[in-house]
Amino acid sequence: MLKNNRPLVIFFLLATILLGNCQTSTLKQATPTGSATSIPTSTVTPTPLVTSTATLSPTPSLLGCPEIQGKFQRLTLEDKVLGKPLQVIIFTPPCYDSKKTGEYPLLVLLHGQGYTAQQWIDLGVAETASRLMASGELPPFLIALPQEDYFLLDITKSAFGPAVIKTLIPRVRQEYATCSTRQCTAIGGISRGAVWAVYLGFNNGLEFGSIGVHSMPSNPFPEYYMKDLLLPLPEKPRMYLDSGSSDRYLPDAKRFESALTAIHLPHSWIMRNGEHNDAYWRSHVEEYLRWYAAPWKSPRIQ
Fold first, then answer.
1. Does the residue 246 lie in any domain?
2. Does residue 36 sit within a domain?
3. Given CA atoms 131, 135, 137, 140 in this order, what sign does their dihedral have?
4. What is the pTM of this model?
């Protein structure tokens, strides 16, 4: 009987083996590998980050206005000397009131070589200013960020400086509720912008009460000329200098600081850890803003 059923037994054994292989193959294909279980980043919906400004409450200094963020406006100013439009970003503070003529101080900030007016925005100046103003730690003020397109020109031959003095500042004072005295007007800059701040601040001494010099790479003046520029001023400008300890232009910044000391011009000189880069400037934006605003204890300066 076994002999007669041998073909059937053989068939049954073969079928069992084949079925087992199929099941094994199916299980192997269904078992996910480590890479197959990873979720593509494009399918992940990130949770929005809550910034510190979102938890702030307006203070009485802002008259109960619910705003906690300042606003931007991009201007294109025609300038005959420059020969092309001057691009400017204007930051107005939280609770800005255009009817308060003459009440808001003005801070002009200049970008570095190879950058645009966006540099200060990318460093967080708007978020930082909004947070400090909304909390009442700083008084409300405007920030003007002009853009220098031809940043390889010798600044003594560039029309950018005259455009800032003769076009930008008068236009801002005309269209915004800014005060017009030198005590409520400040200028500062990063790298090449720091050179511009010194150049414009010293050549227009009656215009600016404060000059901020951040990571200065060179002095635009001989020492004797600096003294001559400042002599006629009834009041010397406030000066703030800072550079990173690993800044490649640190020797130049030190020479400028020594020149200020030689002409007996009071100034703050701060050297911190850091290099000549965005990381250094970004980490000190709040300190810069606090220094600029220190004389502006009240929105009304005049």
1. yes
2. no
3. positive
4. 0.78
